[in-house]
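Hi team,

As requested, here is the filled-out complex form for the glutamine run. I kept the field names the same as last time so the parser does not choke. Let me know if anything looks off before we queue the next batch.

— J.
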Amino acid sequence: MDIVNLSAFELATAIKAKKLSSKEATSAFLKRIEETDGTVKSFLSVNTSALKEAEQRDAELASGKSGPLYGVPVAIKDNMCLKGSKTTCASKILEDFTAPYDATVIERLKAQGVVFLGKCNMDEFAMGSSTENSAFHTTTNPWDSSRIPGGSSGGSAAAVASRQAPLALGSDTGGSIRQPAACCGIVGLKPTYGRVSRFGLVAFASSLDQIGPFARNTEDCALLMNAVSGYDPKDSTSINRDSADHTAGLKDGVKGMRIGLPSEYFEKDPSAEGVKSVLEAAKVFEKLGAKVEKVSLPHTDYCLAVYYIIATAEASSNLARYDGVHYGFRDKDAKNLRDMYNKTRGKGFGSEVKRRIMLGTYVLSAGYYDAYYLKAQKVRTLIKRDFENVFKNFDLILTPTTPTPAFKIGEKVSDPIQMYLSDIFTISVNLAGVPGVSVPCGFSAGGLPLGLQLIGKPFEEAAMLRAAYAYEQATDWHKRMAPVK
Ligand code: GLN
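And here is what came back:
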């Protein structure tokens, strides 16, 4: 049995049938991490008690406990609190911060018998699209180590693509799950805002942030969604409604589904490889019985500007807490309190985080608030309405996930605007609060994975996954494994 190539579902089934122990599964992934992480560099810390935890899961299984992911190992982005583990957000300012409690998603995973493999690399405070903004190291793309894995959840995506973990959690504020999933050739889902609790997720932009799953196929993605989603009274933006079973109906097909292709996402560069492969995917959906038509999301052009006003405004406020007093790094040489704040924040934050704090403070300051922040909020409403209008007549929207396949390390790092444009197809989904999933839909001429984004109605992740599953069955993109070189 080649353990690391098994899907999470296959692992869970083998563990349940006692053909494999959680300890055997966990040690296979730990070995894989040891063998490949010198190149891929997905992890910031590996859980040294993972094997012990797995042994405990095995004992619990023997005493009759079970669940859809019991004993299965999972990797976690390093911006989620796991009690007793370092939670650095890939920032110097939190380098020595140990989480004193569990995030709700972690609590849920623990209750369901999951084993934690470790914490994954990311762009500092989830600001970026390449993991190059990590204060510690850059993760490489498992398909080509000279390229970025995407970001900000690049470590989680690379871990799953390189079979260091069967599943991982990431967070997505403007594309940070879907974009790295596309770059690494795996499945990554951003849930509806309010579907998954943000309690214990280090806040970047609170009105946009959502935690979501990475997996190598849609079924595994649905299993992890089931495990982490649902109402949480500890998150005031969590929505109290029946939590859906994302695996029920997964195999029911797309007959009669109405799918929209937003012209604005296809017009800019109709020759792009990503665009072509999405148009091919649309044909597959038609063959499977869906109705595909052009639609319009007229405010698309404003998304990037609106996002970089709202996200930075919220970030400037959320990151005010890193002051050297509450927790985290404190500069020791300061002469007085003000000097301590300046030096702590000056040394603790990287340059992209500083840029965002300054931009956010600017758009919120007296005299500019109305012109920038308030205006952006109004345009955000228009963007949300665009989606509501399309969803009156359609069940799903299809777009490319990224404008290009994974770019070279260093290619965009000194040009913030170019970097921001990596999320041009994903940020509208966060602004509108709707769910989106990226699934593999082909390869570039250079052999790099391409992603198809499916956008669903609020709280209809299950329908979105049903379509993704149907597409996956009709193609074999998701079966191709990264060579890890
Ligand atoms: N790349 C975008 C940014 O830097 C999105 C990041 C994210 O989704 N966390 O803001």
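Two things worth flagging: The chain is about 35% helix and 15% strand. The CA atoms of residues 88 and 94 lie 5 Å apart.

Thanks,
J.
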